[in-house]
Amino acid sequence: MASYKRDAGANRDALFGGGGGGSGSGKARSSRPSQPRAPAPQQQTVVSSRPIIPTSTTSNDAELTHTPGPSNIFGGKAPSRTNPLSVLSGQAKIDKMAEAEDYRLKAQKAMTRGVFSRPDPISAGNYYKRAADAYKACGENRLERLHRIASGDVQLGQDAYAIAAQEYIRAAELSEVSDETLMRKRQEMHKLYCDAADAWAQMGEKGRAAEARMKAAFGLIMGDEISKPIEAKALISIEDAIETFVPDPLNRKRNYRKGISMYENPNAVDPDAARREAMELAKQNIITDAFAHEALFKVGAELIKRRHFETALYAYGAGTASLESEGIATVSLGRAYLSETVLTLAMGDTVAASQDFQRFHLQNTAYLTSRECALAEDLIRACTAMDLEALEEARSKSGSHRSAMAHLDPSLRGLVKEIRVSGRAKKGAEIKPTAAKPTNKVATAAQPVKPPVPQISGAELEQELEQGFAEMDDIMNEMGLNDDDDDDIDLT
User: Fold this and answer.
1) pLDDT at site 13
2) What are the pLDDT digits (tens) for 25-57?
3) How far is residue 492's CA from residue 480's CA, in Å, rounded to a whole number?
4) Which of 43, 161, 238, 331 keeps 20 to 30 A from 8, CA to CA?
5) Confidence at residue 376, expressed as pLDDT on a 0 to 100 scale
6) What is the rounded distance in angstroms from the CA atom of residue 152 to the CA atom of residue 162?
7) In b/e form, how buried is each residue of 160-176, taking b as 16+ CB within 10 angstroms?
8) pLDDT tens sequence across 249-269
9) What is the DSSP string of 1-34?
C-alpha cells in the first residue's frame, strides 16, 4: 500500500508539477531525491495582450451601424480563436516560428515525388495543420490562414471531407478579422464558406452545408451600413441559401422571392408532372435538424432591419415549413405564425394576412389557444376594420398581449409598432444612430423656424363653408341626387 501511494505521489508530481497534499504522499515525496527543474521559459516570454474585438460584436443591436461578420450573426468562435488572450513573443516566438517553418518544409517534402517515393497527402495535410497551429500561437493571422487553406485542399483531395470543411471554416473566420481590405475579406469568406459547404455536402451533412452556405451569403454584405438596402446579387445569394434549408415547393411564401428556384423547370413538357417530381425531391432535401429554423429566423431579423420585408417573409416562411415538417414544435411554431402575420400586415396586405391566418394558422390545434394567436387575431381585426384605437390597444406594452409582444424578436417587436391600419409600414423608419443633442445656444438658434399658421376670422370661415355646401349641391344635382327627386318617390 505504501508503494502504491509513493507511485501515485510521483505521478501527480510529474503531471501537475508538485503541490497538493494527500495522505501519506508527503513522506513519499521527501524520501525521493529532488531533481532540479528548469524554469518554465513561457512564464517570462509570454506577454498578455488585449483581444482586438470588432465593433460589430457589441451586445446592443441598436448601436450597430454596419453589418457584422457571419460568425457574429450566426454564432461563431472567431474572436476567441483569432485573438488569443496571450501570444508568444521574444525567443519563444522565434522558436515557434522556426518550428512552423520546419513543418512547412516537411509538408512540401511529403508532396514531392522522388525516384523511390511518391507524394503522401495524408502526412502533408497533418504537417500543414501543425504549422497552422504553430502560427496561431504566434498570432500570425495571415500565415495561419494560408496553411489552413493548404491543409484543407490536401485533405479534400484524400476525401477527408470533414477535416477539409473544418479547415476551410477556420480560415474563413480568420479572414473575417484579418487586416485585409474589405472587398478581399468578402471574397475570401464567400469562397471559403462555399468550399466548406461543398465538402459537407459530399459527406451528406446537409444541415452543416446549408449553414456554411448562409454564412457565405452574408459574407458578401459584411461592413455594409444597416440602413442601406442589400445589393441585388447579395440578396439573391441569401435567397439561394434559404432554399438550401427549405426547398421552394414546400415554402408557402415562395412567391415573395425575387430570384428563381432551382426546383423550377420552365421548359417542362408536362408542368403538373414536373411539379409533382419537384415536390418529392423537396421532401427529401428539406432540413429538419434541431435548431435549423433559428438560422432562418436570424436571417429574417437581419432582413427586417434593412427593410427587405418580402425576402424576410420568404425566410420566415421557410422556418415555418421546417417546424411544420418536424411535427413536434408548438411554441416556436406559434411565434413563426405570428411573425408571418406581422410581416404581412407591415407590407399593407391585410387580405393575405387574414387568408393565411384562417386557412393555415388556425388549422393547428395548439395554436388556437396560444397568446400569439390572440395577438395575431386582434391585429388582423383592427387592420381590417381600420380601427386605430383597437390597433394601439393590441400592441400596447401594458395591454393584454404584452406577454406575446415580449417574446418576439426585437426587430419584429419594433415592426409591430410600425403597422398602419392602411398602407405599408413607413420606409423611413430604419435604424439610425442616435444624434447628439446641441449643447450650446448657437446651434439651437440655427434651427429653421416653422412659419406661423394663418388665423381665419369667423366671417371668412362662414363664407368658405357656404361655398363648400354650394359646390356639393351642384355635384349632387349633376348626379341626379337633388332634393326634387325625393318628391317623386311614393312611400305609400
Assistant:
1) 60
2) 444 444 444 444 444 444 444 443 433 334 444
3) 23
4) 43
5) 96
6) 9
7) bbebbbbbbbbbbbbbb
8) 999 999 999 889 999 888 888
9) -HHHHHHHHHHHHHHH-S----TTHHHHHHHSPP
Q: Which long-range contacts (CB under 8 A, 24 or more apart) does 431-439 make?
A: 431/62, 431/64, 431/226, 431/227, 431/305, 432/227, 433/63, 433/65
pLDDT, tens digit, 9 for 90 and up, residues 302-317: 999 999 999 999 999 9
pLDDT over 90 (residue 371) = yes
Separation CA 90–CA 488 (nearest Å): 109
Cα(451)–Cα(467) distance, integer angstroms: 27
* HEC letters along 245-275: HCCHHHCCCHHHCCCCCCCCCCCCCCHHHHH
Cβ neighbour number for residue 206 with a 10 Å cutoff: 20
CA atoms of 440 and 30, how far apart (whole Å): 76
Burial class (CB in 10 A: 0-12, 13-18, 19+), 12: middle
Cell 474585438 locates to 53
The enclosing H or E element of 86 equals: strand 86-88
Residues 395/405, Cβ–Cβ less than 8 Å:
yes
How remote is the C-alpha of 154 from its chain's centroid?
31
- Count of residues for the chain? 492
Distances (CA, A) of 238 to 210, 213, 307, 320: 11, 9, 15, 17
Cell triple for 347:
407590407
